[in-house]
Write a structure and sequence with these properties.
9-stranded mixed β-sheet, 8-stranded antiparallel β-sheet, 9 helices, 19 strands, 18% helix, 28% strand, binds 2-acetamido-2-deoxy-beta-D-glucopyranose, DNase_II, deoxyribonuclease II activity, signal, hydrolase
Length: 362
């Protein structure tokens, strides 16, 4: 008896043409999101519930547009994108990894410190500090895949789309990029430096040898020692370059001042979670980094940085129009955490992300 053709088919890797999906569930090369903190201004649907967001993508990069659907809807770009994975999550020929320094399913300090208005403020610093301060989801078949960079605690669930209560109060940022499979190796290297806290993963055996850093990472290893940072240019399926910056715990300094700004040779303003010991401003530096104090997105009310959990870095000069979305804060506590950011140079998007209205400075 010959080998059944059915069995041969079963061992072939599946092809799903994974892509970031836009607000209408159409393939899109990349998109970015500014999720709003709770505001009572009715400018975007469910902004009072902390479920509102603004959206921008490669096809319309000159404006952050209010989303007609809130984050708890399954009919918007983030859910559309993740739902491709959830629909086939049990297919063992698909690679995926989900990581978060506040992993899905963990109990936060906030629920233990009942009725304190600021009960969540110090929560990120109390998270498992041996891991990087890094959040994201990747899923790939053997041809294409998606990298979603984000700042939302306990997101996303491993098996279904849901926007968590832990992500409603504050502002958040997200960046989705579509890549060909060949780029996964380099993304894996960046993750190997960042040392993420992984709460769901599958690396098919057939993909392991081509992606050694991912294989090692999923086996619990990570970069350490003198070689403490990695900068890689990634190219999306549609041909857009993104510069990815990653650091390890051994870097022992601020990602933005000591890696991002000098690498791109331009000053930056960073909006991140700042509580406790802040990174001192380095006034004499040729490429100084300041911190955002207030933010205003679209028609929505301006808000203070204390209402924002985003990890956004925007270059200060239009001659080098970078927008970076990542997962580590600019705070001294983050010196000894892995983490990174991913940057695009695009003057339209840079204009659209002109959201930082005041900043500290020397
Ligand atoms: C989303 O949340 C809002 C506010 O709590 C609620 O009114 C709405 O029904 C929810 N939508 C979905 C699709 O769950």
């Amino acid at each position: 008896m010959g080998l059944s053709p059915v069995i041969v088919l079963l061992v072939l890797p599946s092809i799903f043409a994974f892509s970031c999906k836009d607000q209408n569930n159409k393939d899109v090369d990349w998109f970015a999101v500014y999720k709003m903190p709770i505001e009572k201004d009715n400018t975007v649907i469910d902004i009072a519930q902390g479920l509102a967001f603004y959206y921008l993508d490669v096809n319309d990069p000159s404006q952050l547009r209010p989303s007609a659907q809130p984050l708890n809807s399954t009919n918007q770009a983030i859910a559309n994108t993740l739902n491709q994975f959830y629909a086939v999550k049990d297919d063992k020929t698909i690679f995926h990894v989900m990581f978060n320094d506040e992993p899905y399913g963990t109990v936060s300090m906030s629920s233990q410190m009942a009725n304190r208005v600021d009960s969540r403020i110090y929560r990120p610093e109390l998270a498992a500090v041996q891991f990087g301060h890094t959040k994201g989801t990747l899923f790939f078949d053997g041809q294409t895949g998606v990298w979603l960079v984000h700042s939302v605690p306990k997101f996303p669930p491993p098996d279904h789309y849901q926007y968590p209560d832990s992500g409603t109060d504050y502002g958040q940022t997200m960046l989705c990029m579509t890549f060909t499979y060949a780029q996964l190796k380099d993304i894996g290297t960046q993750l190997f430096y960042n040392h993420p806290d992984i709460y769901s993963s599958n690396l098919p055996t057939s993909m392991a040898s081509a992606n050694p850093d991912l294989a090692n990472l999923i086996a619990g290893k990570f970069q350490s020692g003198a070689n403490s940072h990695s900068s890689i240019t990634l190219t999306t399926k549609g041909g857009q370059q993104f510069k990815s910056f990653a650091k390890t715990a051994d870097f022992n300094d601020d990602l933005y001042q000591k890696l991002l700004a000098p690498s791109l040779r331009t000053p930056f303003i960073v909006e991140s979670w700042r509580r406790g010991s802040e990174v001192p401003l380095t006034c004499g530096d040729p490429f100084p980094v300041n911190d955002a104090l207030t933010i205003k997105v679209g028609e929505s009310l301006e808000f203070k940085y204390t209402k924002d959990h985003s990890k956004l870095a925007r270059s200060a000069l239009k001659t080098s129009p970078y927008v970076c979305i990542g997962d580590i804060n600019r705070m001294t506590s983050q010196y000894v955490r892995g983490g990174g950011t991913t940057c695009i140079s695009n003057d339209k998007m840079w204009n659209a992300f002109n959201v930082i209205t005041t900043q500290n400075q020397c």
